[in-house]
């Protein structure tokens, strides 16, 4: 395994395979061979790390292995042979992220509530960063992102593009107006 900083312990949630490992069977480039695949790489490396603990009571951090970028890349607003003829349904991914939050807060409430999610690490490795999830429940959490736009205001082109991508999610339409730390 990989050596972790002395004493650091990370608990990796075991999510239903449909939220991570089952998507790898789709064999999409975005899930294995692109910058967006960082969510998969980090998950796999944590499972090999000396920091891994199987006991959440020992954990300093809690990693949520939700492959939001891979999920987004497999759900389209309008299917087609490739961009710009098709586009991903970010609204569907936003709703799925809310489902993962609900799962963690339901089945692991003790660990989430202890620090209000501040010790929970979420990979959001797509261009949309943490806009792929609701702001309020995730605002305390640690977000692993692939770029660092921390703008408070979204430029008009961004809001227009977000509207094209929202699919059927009014929640995402509102979320994309807040900082995404992408």
TrEMBL record:
One GO MF term attached to the UniProt entry: glycosyltransferase activity
InterPro entries, per the entry: Exostosin (IPR004263), Exostosin_GT47 (IPR040911)
Domain Exostosin GT47: 6-133
Coiled-coil stretches noted in the UniProt entry, renumbered to this chain: none
Origin: domain of life: Eukaryota
One Pfam family of this chain: Exostosin_GT47
Similarity comment: family membership: Belongs to the glycosyltransferase 47 family.
Name the UniProt record assigns to this protein: Exostosin GT47 domain-containing protein
């Amino acid at each position: 395994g990989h050596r972790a900083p002395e004493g650091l312990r990370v608990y990796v949630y075991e999510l239903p395979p449909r939220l991570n490992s089952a998507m790898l069977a789709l064999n999409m480039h975005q899930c294995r061979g692109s910058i967006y695949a960082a969510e998969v790489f980090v998950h796999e490396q944590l499972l090999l790390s000396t920091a891994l603990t199987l006991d959440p009571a020992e954990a300093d951090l809690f990693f949520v292995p939700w492959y939001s970028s891979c999920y987004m890349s497999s759900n389209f607003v309008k299917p087609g042979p490739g961009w710009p003829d098709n586009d991903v349904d970010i609204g569907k991914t936003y709703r799925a992220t809310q489902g993962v939050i609900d799962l963690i807060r339901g089945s692991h409430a003790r660990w989430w509530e202890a620090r209000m999610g501040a010790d929970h690490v979420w990979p959001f490795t797509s261009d949309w960063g943490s806009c792929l999830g609701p702001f309020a429940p995730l605002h305390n959490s640690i977000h692993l992102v692939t770029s660092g736009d921390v703008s408070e205001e979204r430029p008009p082109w961004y809001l227009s593009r977000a509207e094209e991508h929202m699919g059927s999610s009014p929640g995402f339409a509102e979320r994309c107006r807040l900082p995404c730390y992408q």
